[in-house]
Specification:
By secondary structure, the protein is an alpha+beta fold. About 50% of the residues lie in helices and about 15% in strands. A hairpin with a 2-residue loop joins β1 and β2. It binds adenosine-5'-diphosphate and magnesium ion.
Length: about 625
């Protein structure tokens, strides 16, 4: 509890201690002949103690021309009750309303804290070695390239490469994956993971603001500001609703008594005109208390907030509540192949060469590729296995969807698919192997090809199955790779459709065609690994980036970022979004339903102010508790 909440709690307690006995003996006091004013003053003590800030806010609202809000409703209703001689009710309403406010601010604060605890990745310090001993410094002050020391149990403060030591890392706060990750020298480590077993020396590769931990926290903190349709609706709704309710209450206070007096109907029950007016004004006050919209207004943003938090705890970063809404309506999903459905670790299965020898062919390929970040290029470099001297490589040009052209030792080398060979006018020899064929041309002459093949991710098959179960009716793979490879992958994982040999711009037009198939509220998602998929990611209704840890382009372009490579997280994200929206709907229906019932009862004089305030605070507490369920999505 923070200071403000504590002081409100103390005010509530003192006011209650004062109010309850006063209320119980007030009947007796009335009999003893004390002046009415004295009684009012006694009741005003707890009333002002607990409600002075509400009165103040209502007054400020009127002064600033923003009259109609909850504070205004409560002020008018309670003052009305007190003026009509219902002192007890007036004070009780204010007291209970504040109990509700306290609970609500506590719950919101708690879930915020919960989320940042779940996302406990903000590092507090970094250790640097100085004169043989360790010194703790602010991670903000560490320059790129500094060697930092991370002891077992400590959080990794900055991204970097291990120079010494091996250990197991707990990356669960980043990825939601609970299995520890083994690391050794030359491995990359990401800030926010926790070093579990060994001492590590790491050379940092980013500044603090650019580190993974900072970027993720930024993302999560900003997510709540992108509002969903329901949230926007609610704030608009509140704007119209409160004034309407106030005018209705005014009508309820004035019209029926006038009607009674004019027609004489229903006058029998009242001793005087004053009693008639008093009764209807009190009903109008009750009506105001009931109509306070706080349950709906607070629970909807809280549900979304909790949903975003629960998802990030599972390694799914959703950039805003609006995307949570879109996700729940996804019916068609297009996938990239490499890095999304397959691992992107290509193994060389064959080298067909002439006239140069196999070693030389692979050397040319690896060197030409040395600046590319495409999975194919990484794999060719790994397969080559030797250290690559980047000084031998000049004039690099990467042509997306084709391959690369570069000069190696001054000789032009082209490495890529058939399209690339056609483009540079080199006649290539087709290969009958199933696999991704990487042709190599050296100095304008065809020199052979390398056959590489990729592995499926373990969960790809299961992921497609779960998506189908979640109601996704079409799963399409869009790839730049050869048709034979695409066909094999598509049938192995159980996709409904595939398109092969696409250039990046063809992927965009494929997505546009698929968008035309979306009818009604259906939405299309594109899932890619981020490398050269940015245009498609932003063209789809919702872009999901895979395994984006470290890849800036994907984090920028995508709306949803899956922190680990796991394709199962796609269906999980959809399920989380549906659960969250389900809870939002439940709350809207529940809160509005109870309100309407109470309003009707109040209009007929059946519900009094006690019932009104208990219903209001009760509904709010239940709605908030329900909203918090969005945080718990682990076992969906
Ligand atoms: P994917 O849909 O598999 O992600 P890309 O658009 O990234 O496809 O690439 C399509 C094809 O272009 C690859 O299968 C490969 O033949 C060729 N290609 C792209 N980049 C490179 C590269 N750096 N080196 C060699 N070939 C490449
Ligand atoms: Mg790709």
């Amino acid at each position: 509890m923070n200071k403000k909440q504590k002081s409100l709690l103390i005010r509530i307690i003192i006011a209650t201690i004062f109010f309850v006995p006063l209320y119980l003996i007030s009947e007796e006091i009335v009999k003893v002949d004390i002046p009415q004013v004295a009684l009012i003053v006694l009741f005003l003590i707890p009333y002002l103690l607990v409600g002075y800030d509400i009165l103040r806010k209502a007054f400020l609202g009127i002064k600033n021309g923003q009259v109609f809000d909850e504070n205004f409703l409560m002020t008018v209703a309670t003052i009305g009750a007190i003026v009509l001689g219902e002192y007890g009710e007036g004070v009780a309403v204010m007291l209970l309303y504040q109990v509700g406010e306290l609970f609500q601010s506590y719950a919101v604060g708690k879930s915020r804290r919960n989320i940042s605890e779940l996302m406990d990745i903000r590092p507090d310090y970094a250790n640097i070695e100085e004169d043989g001993s360790l010194k703790q410094v602010d991670p903000d002050e560490v320059e790129v390239g500094t060697i930092i020391v991370i002891q077992p149990g400590e959080k990794i403060p900055l991204d970097g490469i291990i120079v010494e030591g091996s250990s197991a890392l707990n990356t669960s706060a980043l990825t939601g994956e609970s299995k520890p990750r083994e690391v050794e020298p030359d491995d990359e480590v990401l800030s926010g993971s926790i070093n579990m077993t060994g001492v590590l020396k790491v050379r940092t590769t980013t500044e603090f603001d650019e580190s993974t931990a900072s970027k993720i926290l930024d993302l999560v903190e900003n997510a709540a500001s992108r509002k969903s349709k329901s949230e926007n609706f609610i704030s608009k709704f509140a704007k119209f609703y409160t004034p309407i309710v106030c005018y209705c209450a005014l009508a309820l206070a004035i019209l029926p008594p006038i009607f009674c007096m004019v027609t004489g109907v229903g006058m029998a029950g009242y001793e005087s005109n004053g009693a008639l007016w008093g009764d209807w004004i009190l009903r109008a006050c009750t009506f105001l208390v009931i109509s306070c919209p706080c349950a709906v207004v607070i629970s909807i943003p809280l549900s979304f907030f909790a949903g975003l938090g629960g998802a990030s705890n599972q390694g799914i970063l959703i950039k805003g509540s609006n995307y949570l809404e879109t996700l729940s309506e996804v019916k068609i999903i297009a996938f990239d192949k490499t890095g999304t459905i397959t691992k992107g670790n290509f193994a060389v299965t064959d080298v067909h060469h002439s006239p140069i020898d196999a070693k030389k062919l692979q050397e040319y390929a690896a060197l030409a590729e040395c600046h590319s970040s495409h999975p194919i290029s990484k794999s060719l470099q790994t397969a080559y296995g030797k250290r690559i001297d980047q000084n031998r490589v000049t004039d690099v040009e990467e042509i997306s969807g084709h391959g690369v052209i570069a000069k190696v030792d001054g000789i032009p080398v082209a490495v890529g698919n058939e399209k690339l060979m056609t483009r540079i006018g080199v006649e290539y020899r087709p290969c009958h192997h199933v696999g991704t064929i990487i042709h190599v041309a050296v100095d304008g002459a065809y020199s052979g090809h390398i056959v590489i093949s990729d592995e499926l991710k373990e969960n790809s098959r299961e992921a497609m199955k779960q998506l189908k179960e979640a109601g996704v009716r079409k799963t399409v793979m869009l790839t730049g790779d050869a048709k034979s490879v695409a066909e094999k992958v598509a049938s192995e994982v159980g996709l409904t459709d595939y398109r092969a040999e696409l250039l990046p711009q063809d992927k965009v037009s494929c997505v546009e065609d698929l968008l035309k198939e979306c009818t009604g509220n259906d939405r299309l998602a594109f899932v890619g690994d981020g490398i050269n998929d940015a245009p498609v990611l932003s063209r789809a209704d919702i872009g999901i980036a895979m395994g984006a840890l470290g890849s800036d382009a994907a984090i920028e372009a995508a709306d949803v970022v899956l922190m680990d490579d796991d394709p199962l997280k796609i269906s999980k994200a959809i399920k989380i979004s549906r659960k969250c929206l389900g809870i939002v709907k439940q709350n809207i229906i529940f809160a509005i339903g109870i309100k309407i019932a109470c309003l009707i009862l109040a209009a007929f004089g059946i519900a009094n102010m006690w019932i009104a305030i208990i219903a209001d605070v009760g509904v709010m507490i239940l709605a908030v508790l329900n909203a918090i369920r969005c945080l718990f999505v682990k076992n969906l």
